[in-house]
Design a protein that fits this description.
Layout lengths: L3 E2 L4 H8 L29 E10 L4 E12 L8 H9 L16 E7 L2 E9 L14 E6 L14 E3 L2 H5 L2 H9 L15 H4 E6 L2 E8 L1
Antiparallel strand pairs: 1-7, 2-3, 2-4, 4-5, 5-9, 6-7, 6-8, 8-9
The protein binds zinc ion (2 copies).
Length: 214
Amino acid sequence: MKGVEKAPTSRDNGSEVTAIQQQNCETPKEPQSQKEEFPPAPSDHQSILVSLSSRSVWKGTVCERSHLFRIKYYGSFNKSLGLFLRDHLFDQGYRCRSCEMPSEAHVHCYTHRQGSLTISVKKLQDYLLPGEKEGKIWMWHRCLRCPRPDSFPPATLRVVMSDAAWGLSFGKFLELSFSNHAAASRVACCGHSLHRDCLRFYGYFLLAKLLKRV
Ligand SMILES: [Zn+2]
Ligand SMILES: [Zn+2]
């Protein structure tokens, strides 16, 4: 089938799923007192209020202290998920202003009242994904609640990001990720919740791993 790739082989598992435990948003360097309080209405269906912090895994430093900001779903400030991934997370020329390291050195944490979403970026090490020149982004997930036949969470097939997924507002994507409403939660092919139970991956020449915690 066109646009469908075999899931990563077990050889890749290590680099994909290691250090899940360390992907925690909490950073020892940030005292609890610095946690921001969310106003009573963090989402108004037009925008979402989140707190973002970033740290460098390579240097062990906090690159961006947690700060609140609002992401709009519509209008000129809106950015699509595809553009967020390609131009922001997967920007080859990116150098962090704080640690001077490239994108793949970083873990970003979006925090919301209903949990946190950790996005870690790393280099694809053992394989290349086709269509890199055309800017294709692949996506797949691993369910953390399904049985693990080879001790790794089972991976789904890789599929190229659809136009609909690409065009989805990044703010809306965050809202869906944080939503606990059954209507909003996407069901993975195994029947578990895509947002709550799965590690989500987006691959280009870099790999972004998304993990939600409640
Ligand atoms: Zn940095
Ligand atoms: Zn499952």
